């Protein structure tokens, strides 16, 4: 039980510590509240390593950030693939090259008799349906996995469910 409380304290401190590291590193660029030292390159060399901003700050938060980006980017793939599926392929019809099914709101997907409108490339309707459907499924799974990761990471950080294992005899 003691290790769980210790883990709770440590995990709940992670975000504020990262944010304070960023703030403190930024303040190093303004000795005595003045910007002139930074603009004239009169600061200690180690200020320019961005250690508080990048490594103690941002890198600490990256796991959640990348999971959130995973949601956004996978969601983008899902939406664009769904739109591509509903629009149908660009193909050569009797009227020339066009989106033959653009105005059908996806009704062509369930009526394979309409697919013969696309003369070229061969089997382009099936090709698009299969591949866009696979992209929708894959990106949908990615969204779900990333959502779960964010939820777990947030609960561990905010609710303090990170556990710290203390082995006997090791100090």
From TrEMBL:
It is a multi-pass membrane protein. Its main location: membrane. The chain crosses the membrane at residues 12-31, 46-66, 73-90, 129-152. It is found in: Membrane. It holds the Pfam family L6_membrane. One of its GO terms (cellular component) is membrane. It comes from the Eukaryota. Keywords: Membrane, Transmembrane, Transmembrane helix. InterPro entries: L6_membrane. Belongs to the L6 tetraspanin family. This is Transmembrane 4 L6 family member 18. It comes from Muntiacus muntjak.
